[in-house]
Amino acid sequence: MSGLADSRHRQEGPARGRPRSEAVERAILEGVVKLLEEGVPLAELSIERIARTAGVGKATIYRRWSGKEELFVDVMRAAEPPDLELPGTSMRDDLVALLEQLRQRGLMTRSSAVLHNVYAQMKSSPKIWAAYHATVVEPRRRLQVEVLRRGQESGQLRADLDVELMNDLFVGPMLLRTVMHPDADLPEGLSEQLVDTLLEGLRPTSSPPVSSSPT
Q1: Distance CA 106, CA 177 (A)
Q2: 144 in Cβ contact with 190 (< 8 Å)
Q3: Cβ distance 90 to 213 under 8 Å?
Q4: How far apart are the C-alpha atoms of 90 and 113, rounded to whole Å?
Q5: Do residues 50 and 11 make contact, with C-beta atoms less than 8 angstroms apart?
Q6: What's the pTM value of the predicted model, to 2 decimals?
């Protein structure tokens, strides 16, 4: 989980506040990671302890984050692979990119004992999980649904099916392999295979065969 601050700023743009804020925020984020790597449970990660580890005052943290939940969401976002920009060449390609992000996050969680442990603890903390879900999970889901909705409008998907249900059909198999069956294979090409298989049944019957590029 090294290089968290650099990853975070690649995802979210310039640091907030004065120029030196970037260094301060990096110290705070890395302070949280240091405590996690030392095995400190989430329940014991108080703002006071984080501030002491990062070498800053509590007020410095509260100027940037409203509380531990918001700070921890930023730590988790930085630890995960950054969200990729969708190619926009076709609905199929956008869906593949979205599933590939899930696959990459699954691989990273498997390779990092700390990250795996933190995810497990996070789900047992209602406040932190709610903050992570609202800030990270739900925006990703809205994007997935919007890609499918645009596919319906352009005639690439059946118009008689609910987009929320279709989203579950696309995302569900990848989540099953990454979350429910952590030992399941996550090979390269899995995202393409899932998308192409589902599109065979979900595209209108008059549509041409699935293609990775627009005709």
Answers
A1: 8
A2: no
A3: yes
A4: 36
A5: no
A6: 0.79
Model pLDDT for residues 4-37, shown as the tens digit of each residue: 434 444 344 434 444 458 899 999 999 998 998 8
Question: What is the distance between the alpha carbons of residues 8 and 117, in angstroms, rounded to a whole number?
Answer: 20
Helix, strand, coil percent content, the chain, rounded in steps of 5: 65, 0, 35
Which two three-digit tokens encode residue 51?
Answer: 């501030």
CA distances for 41 relative to 15, 17, 47, 134, angstroms: 28, 30, 13, 22
Owner of token pair 């921890």 = 72
Under the phi-then-psi rule, with left for phi > 0, alpha for psi from -120 to 50, and beta for the rest, what region is 13?
A: left
Angle CA 117–123–124, to nearest 5: 95
Rounded distance, CA 106 to CA 163, Å?
24
**Could you tell me which residues come within 8 angstroms of residue 213 by beta carbon, excluding any fewer than 6 positions away?**
89, 90, 93
